[in-house]
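re: ur question from earlier - yeah i can do the single chain one, its not a big deal. heres the input i used so u can compare w yours
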Amino acid sequence: SEEKGFDIFCDIASANSHRYKFLAAGGFTNSNDKEKFDESYSDVIRLLGIVELEDFLKQVDAVILPVKWNEPFGRVIVECAKANKFVLTSPKGGITELNEFFPNVYLSNDWRKDFKQFDFANAISESSSCQISFEAKEIASQYREFYIKVLSSEVSNL
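and the output i got, formated as tokens:
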């Protein structure tokens, strides 16, 4: 969708298809968008349709998500980063904080311009330095531990 920056992704692919292969996953919300894509970009972007993220990630080295809206968390960005992919995205909403935990998340306000200068050879694609778990069970456990600490400190202060 345009909110996710698909138009920017298409422009990047169009300008750089001589250097890289571009794949896109997902579908279109209306036939006009699909027709526009087919006319303008189908020769430079291979559209996979709706696929599981895991299957998509097996086929790519980098993920370009130049989102335009204030993404509250960016779950897809986390999943891509944890899969050791380069993640090129925008500093919007909670995404800015993810950059602090994942060295393979790169931020730019203008990927149309900055993509050409991005140095894949020297960039970090590994997320192994991130020790934060985003698993629901782990987060619930951390909340429980914190809650117990708060309760015990209140009891000791009585």
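Residues 6-129 form a domain with the Rossmann fold fold (CATH 3.40.50.2000). not sure if urs matches, ping me
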